[in-house]
Design a protein that fits this description.
The protein is α+β, with helices and mostly antiparallel strands. It has 14 helices and 23 strands.
């Protein structure tokens, strides 16, 4: 390994590292050799460091200038207790760190690490005990993010365990820094920001292939293949384990491969603003008479205009419009209408579904649904529901055994007693049709936890009226979050390879974040609403998702004001930007805020204040 040491004072740290095998140490000092030689006491340097290359007059903010192109690939860079010298304040030291991280970006290997040791409290992270106020800290994670680095580990800096190490240079004097409680911060490169260009996607619709432009907010979520056979993604692991568990109790048929991505018309009862509408490429839109009599024909919705007044829609959507499927339930209904359904056999459907929703911790514009459908004799549906739930409970308990520290608690709650404060997932499921039970999963000691599924029991559309269809719809993404201890749903969609490396060969493990304490940036936006018109908050949240590339984690209404006399209404929202997997600096977040202001004025017809 090539190791670069910056800001060495007496080179005692270099001497401790230089004995390591297969390590080439380059130890540098900011001062010239003459200046360093003039120091006395404990700060007096030992230039003869066996096995190390010693370089003087190295500015940590201009590293590219000191190393030739062939000498820049350092595997590790160490900077112990950086300081501008004398009584420099936090602002100057932040500037020093900012220049240092930008310098490292030019000389660090792609998989390299940056180790920065700071005195207790300086970093400004929750790892500091006690923690300083944010404005009085060096804000190291936010500063590093500006240069494209994320904090991946933090642990105590144990100076006493480093043989011969003497920490000196406090305020440019022959004094030691207070190393009690000091922390070593380890940074790694972040994945680069994704630049998603408009994307056309081709899919099967009836008997022909059609293409459409993917909504910008979904460009990174279309065709990711998480459920494919060669995938080790946790959502596929959970899907396979649940299917295997169900097959122990019932005959099982998997019919997910032939499900169309698009649906046509408008699903009855579903709010128009929750749907991702798409337009087929010119000349490709088939008329309903030209569509095949296969599954795509069966999911053509005929409830045009149904519940439009209830859902706040001014008019009926064009029946020739197309939209990305928000649920797999219409496909199950299509199978029943065709008669391709064997009573007593569980039908398993799975695939991604897409729903416009608000920005909340567990609201996802795209997730993977597992739909289990079973036709049973009338009068036995309640016992079948219990069998399904017990089977799911057993599978979940077996899943958690491989995930240390996570013990799920599965509960079934009556829909009538669930309350009015529903999650976006539960509320949308109610729009799709009557729900008998909500399936909730919590992690002890906090049951009942989040709603991850719904249970329905409805009369079957068969010639025989003696059958009832029991269905269970599960949100696989929410299950993955709860079972693997993942705090942010966006992590499931990350492009960073470090995520899937934690789940080799489909194993479920407790997830360890590779981006610790990501900084957040708060901005406010206020605007006047158009006269006499309402405000579509879901459209506002979807717009924020799109312009920020899913970097918005919270949108809170701060104020609603109605101007006396004119009756004009103004809203003020607080928008919080934060990434879960890559570096997000304050400048980039400020640019996102500007783009958001422009977008809401252009697309929502509001007047900015």
């Amino acid at each position: 390994r090539r190791v670069l040491l910056l800001g060495e004072g007496n080179f005692s740290f270099a001497a401790a590292l230089s004995g390591a095998r297969a390590t080439h140490v380059v130890a540098t000092c900011y001062e010239s050799e003459e200046e360093a030689a003039g120091r006395g006491g404990a700060a007096q340097p030992c230039f003869a460091v066996a096995g190390a290359e010693v370089v003087f007059s190295v500015d940590c903010t201009k590293l590219k200038e000191h190393f030739a192109p062939g000498e820049r690939e350092f595997d590790r860079i160490y900077f112990n207790f950086p300081h501008c010298g004398r009584k420099a304040g936090v602002v100057k030291n932040r500037q020093l760190l900012a220049g240092f991280f930008h310098g490292c970006a030019e000389v660090l290997a792609q998989e390299g690490e940056i180790h920065v040791a700071l005195c207790n409290g300086q970093g400004g992270t929750p790892a500091d005990q006690p923690r300083r106020e944010w404005h009085n800290s060096w804000q190291i994670v936010a500063v590093a993010a500006g240069a494209g680095f994320i904090l991946s580990h933090v642990h105590p800096f144990k100076a006493e365990s480093i043989e011969g190490y003497k920490c000196t240079g406090y305020r440019s004097q022959d004094k030691s820094f207070c190393v009690e409680g000091a922390l070593n911060h380890i940074f790694t490169r972040s994945t680069a920001p994704q630049c998603f260009t408009p994307m056309n996607y081709q899919t099967q619709l009836g008997s022909q292939k059609v293409s459409f432009q993917v909504p910008q907010v979904l460009v990174d979520k279309i065709n990711r293949g998480f459920l494919e056979v060669n995938s080790s993604h946790p959502v596929r692991t959970i899907k396979e384990r649940l299917s295997a568990g169900l097959s122990q109790a019932f005959p099982l048929q998997n019919i997910s491969s032939c499900l169309p991505l698009l649906q046509q018309g408008h699903p009855g009862g579903v709010c128009h603003s929750n749907i991702f509408w798409v337009t087929l490429s010119p000349g490709e839109a088939p008329g309903t008479g030209k569509m095949s009599q296969g599954l795509a024909d069966a999911v053509l919705c005929s409830h045009f205009g149904q519940d439009t007044a209830e859902n706040g829609q001014e008019g009926c959507p064009d029946p020739e419009q197309f939209y990305l499927r928000p649920s797999l339930l219409p496909h199950a209904q299509a199978i029943m209408k065709k008669g391709a359904f064997s009573p007593g056999t569980i039908q398993v459907l799975s695939g991604p579904v897409f729903r416009k929703c608000r920005v909340t911790p567990h609201s996802m514009p795209a997730f993977h649904e597992l739909l289990v459908v079973l036709a049973v004799s009338r009068g036995t549906e309640n016992s079948c529901v219990q069998m399904l739930v017990e089977n799911i409970k057993t599978t979940m308990n077996s899943l958690h055994q491989g995930v240390s520290g996570i013990k799920p608690s599965v509960s079934l709650q009556e829909a009538a007693s669930f309350g009015t404060e529903l999650s976006d997932f539960a509320a949308f499921e109610r729009q799709l049709g009557e729900v008998q039970h909500f399936l909730c999963v919590g992690t002890e000691p906090d049951p009942p936890g989040a709603c991850v599924g719904v249970i329905r029991a409805v009369p079957a559309e068969f010639k025989s009226h003696e059958l009832v269809v029991v269905s269970a719809s599960l949100n696989l993404d929410l299950l993955a979050l709860l079972l693997c201890g993942i705090s942010d749903w966006r992590m499931l969609w990350t492009w960073d390879r470090r995520f899937l490396r934690q789940f080799p060969e489909g194993e479920l493990r407790l997830f360890k974040s590779f981006s610790l304490y990501p900084p957040s940036y708060v901005h406010d936006v206020s605007f006047w609403l158009p006269d006499g018109q309402g405000f579509d908050e879901v459209a506002f949240h979807t717009l924020a998702r799109r312009v920020s590339g899913e970097m918005v984690v919270s949108i809170q209404l701060r104020d609603s004001f109605q101007q006396p006399g004119t009756g004009r209404r103004s809203l003020c929202y607080r928008v919080t930007f934060q990434s879960c997997d890559r570096a997000l600096g304050c400048r980039e977040a400020a640019e996102m805020q500007l783009h958001l202001r422009e977008a809401i004025q252009q697309h929502l017809a509001v007047t900015l204040r």
